[in-house]
Amino acid sequence: MNPFWSVTLFWIAAAVSIAIALAFVLPPLLRKKAVAAKAARRDINIAVYRDQMKEMEADRANGLLSDDQYQSSKLELESRLAEDALSQADAVMAPVASRRLGFTLAGVLPVAALGLYFWLGNPMSLIAIAEAQANPAMEGAVQGEHDVMKMIQQVEEKTRKDPNDVAAWAMLGKTYAVVGHWPEALHAYEKAYKLKPDEPAIMTGYAETLAISQDRVMKGEPIRLVLQALEKDPDDIKGLELAGINGFQEKNFTKAAFYFKHLHKQLPPDSPYAQDILAAQKEATRLSRGAMTGMDNLADQGPAAAAGPGATLHGKVDIAPALKAKITDKDVVFLFARSAEGGAPVAAIRSTAVKFPLEFELNDAMAMNPENRLSNFKQVTLTVRVSKSGDPMGEAGDLEGALAGVKVGSKDIKLMIDKVKP
After folding, report:
1. What share of the chain is helix, strand, coil (3-state, %, to 5)?
2. CB 350 within 8 A of CB 296
3. Whole-number Cα distances in Å, 422 to 167, 394, 396, 397
4. For all residues of the chain together, what is the average pLDDT?
5. Taking 60 as the threshold, does the pLDDT of residue 211 lie above it?
6. How far is residue 295's CA from residue 367's CA, in Å, rounded to a whole number?
7. Contact 139, 133 (CB under 8 A)
8. Burial track 56-80 (b if 16+ CB lie within 10 A, e otherwise)
9. CB–CB of 249/213 below 8 Å?
10. d(CA 403, CA 417)
11. Which of 101, 129, 134, 259 has the CB geometry, 3.0–4.6 Å to 243, for a possible disulfide?
């Protein structure tokens, strides 16, 4: 059913219920004719008492009643007369008070009922339930929300029975994170990480809760965990998201754009989450063009003082003859070194000089993250890209080349640009 009609029917039912309640309460309070009829009968009775008094006086004057009998009968009649007179006064006053109460209830009762509902109830649940009925996919989410706490209790029971259940601790941390109970999520992920410190999903979940606990800053242990997780699983969604956020926090927009673009490729393109990631990627790309953080000019490279012993790569980049005609002066060259397992670049440089062959040297000074450096690895994969748009992420039509299994410390490396990005 359409959510509008579902909500409308609810309010109609509520109005009918209030009307039925008033129908039971108001009629006795607003009734007038019956009271008036009772008052008229009492007036007649009082007139009859007066006639009886006159008859008693006439009987005493004629000697039919003695003085004692007269006084006794008179006292009884006056008592009865007083009772009817008081009853008449009550009858006249009661309808006024009752009608006022009735009108008051007629106004206050609906307002009080609706006020209590909006105060103690959940009006928005009407729309949520109606939309869930209209959209079966949402129905499961609404029902799931009500079952979250029950599921948490069940998982907590598992951890109590078996404190070494890694899956239970990880699930508990993830569930607590979903409902925003971050201290509890941090505790659960700590337990899971101690039991299995090499699981990417646990590492990134733990990193997120650590970042939340330190004012959402990724610097330090959180980003270290994320980068380690991405070395093991370059497609970890949470890891890519957190790495992109870290890029923004460090104003390393090239890195942020890289991670967000890789993340966006793994998401359903029409999902709201994918649209948010795409917007973040575009913003990072825009900012990176104004400040290419951590990338020096390839043509001016020289040995860096910060480079560790042997932690360098030296060689030349050339281009296949068939692709030379595709080079323009507006192109930008990017060179990345990644670990053999993939993940974030451990060194990167940029050049606007596109005359080949180009000589290059990579070292620890060119790390995009100081904790993820060239010297941490024995072998790397080199990737060179000639970007037509200036975007380091690469687009269709860009020229590329790659060389895997390059030992750190190698010299005279020959890297060839030999394909067009589809």
Report:
1. 60, 15, 25
2. yes
3. 40, 10, 5, 6
4. 76
5. yes
6. 9
7. yes
8. beeebeeeebeeeebeebbeeeeee
9. no
10. 10
11. 259
Distances (CA, A) of 322 to 96, 350, 353: 105, 23, 19
> Which residues face 93 on adjacent strands?
none
Q: Residues 140-154: pLDDT tens digits? A: 444 455 566 777 888
C-alpha to C-alpha distance for 257 and 110, rounded to whole angstroms: 57
Cα gap 394→120, rounded to integer Å: 55
Peptide bond preceding 321 in cis form (omega within 30 of 0): no
What tokens were used for 13?
């039912």
Calpha distance 367→60 (Å, rounded):
131
Both structure tokens of 271: 């999902």
The pair of three-digit structure tokens given for residue 345, joined into one six-digit string = 């670049």
Q: Is 130 exposed, middle or buried (0-12, 13-18, 19+ CB in 10 A)?
A: buried
Q: Which of 223, 271, 273 is nearest to 245 (CA)?
A: 223
Amino acid at 253: F
Look-up of token digits 């010299």: 411
